[in-house]
Amino acid sequence: WRYNYAPAIPNRGGTYGSGVASKSEPIKCFDILIPTRKGSEDRVVAVMEYEDYVIASTHLNYNQNDQVELINKTITELYADSDKPVFLGGDMNAQPHHEMMLEFKKEWVILSSTGRTTVQDRTACIDYILQFKNKAKIAKVTRSQVITAALAGDVCIASDHYAIYADVKLP
Questions:
Q1: Which of 29, 64, 80, 111 has a CA-to-CA distance to 104 between 20 and 30 Å?
Q2: Which pLDDT tens digit goes with each residue over 129-168?
Q3: How far apart are CA 85 and CA 69, in angstroms?
Q4: DSSP-derived secondary structure for 97-153
């Protein structure tokens, strides 16, 4: 496996951040640092670029549109003129109708299902897979699910969020 782990804050003698993992060798890895307001934690976007696409991951603070604005600005500067699809997944800490997601929708299309809860003990979808609106065609979603059970292991112990996925077909 190849991975890009992007540390955001110190935590218990280590760091807390975001990461991306893949079996393929990327051509470039980088991070987008997202400093936040006083009293909030810094956040980060981990990015892995491949020959034909880009994947990224993040975990954002609740109700801070400036994080979304920085992500949109940075990705626009890097990939607006590219025909590579750019995908971003993560815990956005915002429901589909929330102002943060409306800010994302200016530059991104939501590919993952938004009709089910993605967090245990809550009725909220706050985890997403998005595709950036650049020169690449929007991927066709063939299936998107929230994983609430698995054949092995207990998804409720692994995290307080359920894993999500979107199977896509690139044009």
A1: 29
A2: 999 999 999 999 999 999 999 898 888 888 899 999 999 9
A3: 19
A4: TSHHHHHHTTTEEE-S--SS--BTTS----EEEEEE-SSSPPPEEEEEEEE---SSS
Interatomic CA distance for residues 62 and 130, integer angstroms? 18
Indicate the pTM of the whole model: 0.95
Place of tokens 């815990």: 91
Residues of the chain scoring pLDDT < 50: none
- Whether residue 74 contacts residue 46, with contact meaning beta carbons closer than 8 Å, is answered with no
Count of CB atoms within 10 A of residue 47's CB? 25
16-31 in b/e form (b: 16+ CB < 10 A) is ebbebeeeeebeeeeb
Structure tokens at 155: 């998804």
Q: Quick one: pLDDT at residue 158? A: 84
Torsion angles phi and psi, residue 99, rounded to 5: -55, -35
